[in-house]
Amino acid sequence: MNYNVDEKGYYGEFGGAFIPEMLYPNVENLRQQYLKVMEEPSFKAEFDQLLKNYVGRPSPLYFAKRLSEKYNTKIYLKREDLNHTGAHKVNNTIGQILMAKRLGKTRIIAETGAGQHGVATATVCALMGMECIVYMGEIDIARQAPNVARMKMLGAQVRPALSGSKTLKDATNEAIRDWINNPVDTHYIIGSAIGPHPYPDMVTRFQSIISEEIKWQLKEQEGRENPDYVVACVGGGSNAAGTFYHFLNEEEVGIIAVEAAGKGVESGESAATSVLGKEGIIHGCKTLLMQTPDGQITEPYSISAGLDYPGVGPMHAHLYKTGRAEFIPVTDDAAMQSGMELCKLEGIIPAIESSHALAILKTRSFKPTDVVVLNLSGRGDKDLNTYIKYFEL
Amino acid sequence: MNRIQQKLKSDKKLFSIYFTAGYPNLNDTVQIIQDLESSGVDMIEIGLPFSDPLADGPTIQASSTQALKNGMTTAVLFDQLRDIRSSVNIPLIIMGYFNPILQYGVEAFCKKCQEVGIDGLILPDLPLDKYQEEYEALFRKYGLLPIFLITPQTSEARIAQIDEASDGFIYMVSSASVTGSSNGFGNEQESYFKRIAEMQLKTPQVIGFGISDSKTFQQATKWAKGAIIGSAFIKYITKNGTGNVREFVEQIIR
Lengths: 393, 254
What we know:
The complex is a heterodimer.
Chain A: E1 10-11, E2 14-15, H1 24-39, H2 41-55, E3 61-63, H3 65-71, E4 74-79, H4 89-102, E5 107-112, H5 116-128, E6 131-137, H6 138-143, H7 145-153, E7 157-161, H8 168-181, E8 186-188, H9 199-207, H10 209-222, E9 229-234, H11 238-244, E10 254-262, H12 273-276, E11 278-282, E12 285-289, H13 314-322, E13 325-331, H14 332-346, H15 352-359, E14 371-376, H16 384-391
Parallel strand pairs in A: 4-14, 5-6, 5-8, 6-7, 9-10, 9-14, 10-13
Antiparallel strand pairs in A: 1-2, 3-4, 11-12
Helix pairs in contact in A: 2-4, 4-5, 4-9, 5-7, 9-11, 10-11, 14-15
Chain B: H1 3-9, E1 14-20, H2 29-38, E2 43-48, H3 58-70, H4 74-80, E3 92-96, H5 98-104, H6 106-116, E4 120-122, H7 128-141, E5 145-146, E6 149-150, H8 156-165, E7 170-173, H9 187-198, E8 205-208, H10 214-223, E9 226-229, H11 231-240, H12 245-252
Parallel strand pairs in B: 1-2, 1-9, 2-3, 3-4, 4-5, 6-7, 7-8, 8-9
């Protein structure tokens, strides 16, 4: 079984490039160039140097002793929260801004939900001196004011998406429309492992540094490269794609993808796409997505702004369909409790997205000898308001 | 011969109108089609509304959102069009995004199109290669012409491919834009229209996007077989209601 993208841009039946002709020249050019560019020694050198000296990689693989004692298994945390800008997102934006430069683009656009990808994009645009426009739903702009301010400080222009539900999916629509209107000078930095081929594969490859490091770090600490399980939360799925990538074809490694169940899978307020989604097309790719019987895309819900996307990356849809990965839904409440637990046990305040991954420790049992690597995709600073409100701090 | 092909054979320049089904009111669809035909329009694109219309500007987005709120669905549209061929003979094309059609079932959709008398489909996010691999046979079986888009950025090689795959007309997007976003045509568009005209394609071209009045209609049809107006018509019925679409049509082709 192949879990990677095939030469036509599909993961099994999922993926492809379902885009209007207006986007075809840009997406096709990217498809023809991306692997070539990524293999250039000068590209690799620049990417590696920036990840090391600017982002602060490698991020630690930390043996969480007290958490391990509590759950009676060996838990390692991959500390993506310690990256510059506070999450894994920057791995991809560094890669894509270097790609954009090599493609001769001078103007960058991006979509953002909670603002993490927007901040990571604004950051690399400042670094490279490139024009940056970030689309963000009007509702998200109101509830994520600190990230809006960060983007502005970094020199980006934040444009509100006023259509539809005025959240992440509409911000993505607006970014795509901008690209249609500006096909020559603009590169679109998609923030997750979604969109038309080659985006899911390109984003996954830039994020695969996560699993590449896990392998050698685990070898140093445990004497073996492969853990028994890798665990990550999945919204669109970029941190999970990076965490899983080098283990996809290592059959002895269990893969666990954690979805946001919101107020419960059956509550009508959920973002558990694998359970609630049906095959369809969103933002240029065929995947599982939440929609009405008539094929209109619906609005998901999660307390975590980074997980409330109505679709899931096509690689993950394939991992779900083939049974290669186990998909576990986690509610708002369970995630919040597990986030707080990590603060108390390990002195780490996690992003609420990452707290979803932690929450499976309460329901999914592991053997005492199991080595479980859990991707701590981001830090919780951005979520303080939500934590304060939820726990009445 | 398909009604679109017949119309393309006529000597005149074709005037085509796009409107969103179910807008402004759910049950306006049939009346709008009848009035457009009797006002002298040559071809109609019926927009099947979608929650996330990537290629559309604010006007068509808003009309789609309202149409969905009004209760428009694929099944409702087919129900409204059930007897349309007893009253009009104008070529009818459904323009929509692929996901709702995928959910309806592509074959069921094509079959239903044939039953009610639809002549062609414009599905901007169904790419040419996917159409050829999986759906061309279905389109043919049910007598539907596929209409593909080209833009100023489309390469000559790809235009040739699209020309080859087309039996009706090529939808020429006037500029790099979503619907409803341009204000008149400049030299750049003019030279693009000319460049395509000089390619002598086997498939006639109809220009759309950015055509809003008599002037832009004349500019476009100087080079192409016809032109399509969408957003400007939606704006007109938003402001004036659907009672007098003839007035709008006459403004364009007086």
